């Protein structure tokens, strides 16, 4: 196989405007695209600045109800600072900051209840 990366992760949401505002204004991701695909369907795509993988906020997959996604891990260079900033936006962290063998992290939910993790940046795997 010659797979070289991951491009897009689809995240199920009920309201694309509300989700876009959360991911851009609260989490600080960049809005890459917000465009009509066809009547009644929009492509809303966000990503961390400089990130290779993007997120599309989708409403059209019947098998992916809004709020059903778990385990999307985002990285930060300043976990403690981001936790305080996000708390200022009303974001809750039910378990507080956690320490694990793989690093420090917090869990939170987006407005639809999708489960997210914000983790302190870790060393990358070396590229072959």
TrEMBL record:
- Enumerate the spans annotated as VOC domain: 5-121
**Tree of life domain:** Bacteria
Q: Cite the SUPFAM superfamilies for this sequence.
A: Glyoxalase/Bleomycin resistance protein/Dihydroxybiphenyl dioxygenase
Task: Give this protein's Gene Ontology molecular function annotations.
Answer: dioxygenase activity; lyase activity
* Keywords for this protein: Dioxygenase, Lyase, Oxidoreductase
Entry keyword Ribosomal protein: no
Q: What is this protein called?
A: Catechol 2,3-dioxygenase-like lactoylglutathione lyase family enzyme
Q: Which organism is it from?
A: Petropleomorpha daqingensis
């Amino acid at each position: 196989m010659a797979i070289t990366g991951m491009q897009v992760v689809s995240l199920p949401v009920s309201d694309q405007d509300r989700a876009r505002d959360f991911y851009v204004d609260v989490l600080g991701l960049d809005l890459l695209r917000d465009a009509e695909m066809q009547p009644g369907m929009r492509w809303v795509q966000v990503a961390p600045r400089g990130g290779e993988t993007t997120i599309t906020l989708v409403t059209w997959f019947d098998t992916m109800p809004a709020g059903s996604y778990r385990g999307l891990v985002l990285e930060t260079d300043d976990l403690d600072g981001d936790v305080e900033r996000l708390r200022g936006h009303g974001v809750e962290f039910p378990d507080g900051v956690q320490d694990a063998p793989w690093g420090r992290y917090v869990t939170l939910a987006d407005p639809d209840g999708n489960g997210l993790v914000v983790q302190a940046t870790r060393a990358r795997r070396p590229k072959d």
